[in-house]
Amino acid sequence: MEPVFYWIIAAVILGAIELFTGTLVLAMVGVGAVLAGVGAALGAPFWLQAVLFGAGSVASIVGLRPFLKQALESDARGDQTPRAFGTRAIEGAEARVLETVSAKGGLVEIEGANWTAYPLEPDQSLEPGDTVTVVEIKGATVIVWKQS
Question: What whole-number distance in Å separates Cα of residue 31 and Cα of residue 59?
């Protein structure tokens, strides 16, 4: 297999992992992999591909990441107050119980998406239609709480 394909595969894998982390670091390293892939496609020797990868990664982390992070965290109205994105944005959100949530689990809807949920207090049982608050995210499940 040609080296360009290895760089493309690396960039795609880094981009996919970035979707789960939300830090923008792996995406910037992926930019370096794309740059190295371009070098490989143009016939550059491996040492030059490695230099392109390193330089592209560092340059994008230092130069591009702060700009992107600020753009993602600023509000559309120009407010510079940082806001969470990715799964961190769900914490503190309101959810609607779709199926009874108990220590055995349940189902809630958060902004149109269905999530498996467990109550914060194991003895608590939440009924369909209840409005709850997302306290924590553990993998693909949420921990919810309803004030009494």
Answer: 9
User: 3-class SS at 97?
Assistant: strand
Spatial contact of 35 and 52, defined as CB atoms under 8 Å apart? yes
Find the range with the poorest average confidence among 12-16, 45-49, 82-86. 82-86
33 close to 10: Cβ distance less than 8 angstroms: yes
Nearest alpha-carbon partner for 97 in 85, 105, 89, 87: 105
Mean of pLDDT over the chain: 87
User: 17-66: per-residue pLDDT in tens?
Assistant: 988 888 889 999 999 999 999 999 999 999 999 999 999 999 999 998 88
pLDDT for the residue numbered 76: 47
Alpha-carbon distance 135 to 117, whole Å?
Answer: 11
Residues in CB range of 129: below 8 A, 6 or more apart: 96, 97
**DSSP category for residue 88:** G
Residues in contact with 147: Cβ distance below 8 Å, sequence separation at least 6, in sequence order? 133
Query: What is the C-alpha radius of gyration for the chain, rounded to an integer number of angstroms?
Result: 21
